[in-house]
Amino acid sequence: MNPTSSKTFxxxxxxxxxxxxxxxxxxxxxxxxxxxxxxxxxLVLTGNGKGKSSSAFGMVARAIGHGMKVGxxxxxxxxxxTGEESFLxxxxxxxxxxxxxxxxxxxxxxxxxxRSALAAWAVAQQMLQDESFDLVVFDELTYTVKYGYLxxxxxxxxxxxxxxxQHVVVTGRxxxxxxxxxxxxxxxxxxxxxxxxxxxxAQQGVEW
Length: 208
Description:
The chain is α/β, with parallel strands linked by helices. The chain has 8 helices and 6 strands. Helix 3 (83-88) links the parallel strand 2 (70-74) and strand 3. The longest helix has 32 residues, at 3-34. The chain starts with a helix and ends in a 20-residue tail after the last strand.
């Protein structure tokens, strides 16, 4: 191909690209213009893959950056040495509660786990009734329903009764259908490969 032909080909390629992007922009602008509802969202981050809590805490950081008030209730995790809790809980307008006793195989006590879940949900209910909270995160809430510590109907009722502009993020595997049905956004994270399966222990700053 001579230089002139190559230049012509590049020009045509650029023209096709510009046309395609222009069409896409028109389509996206129309969708954005049509999305005119302003309301609080219920987001569910579920699935077996890594990153559910990490994604939720990313939204916490985002909300803090906008000067919003944030509440976090951790239902299963009992450790208070995680990087996210250490940093984010010290930020202005953040209320953070670590209320779990660890994984069920650690406690091996259903009665204790149920009491802890009920106590954590009591705190969550207070946040859901307080319109000063712009965003609340219920980390690993799904497990409490999976193991029968909390009733899905109660959770759904309280979520639907929250202030109109309050956003809620629920994380954890085994998200119950009742919560999925009322969610606005659902992300299911899947495992492709995980270091733990190769015998690599949890790494500070990555896992906790």
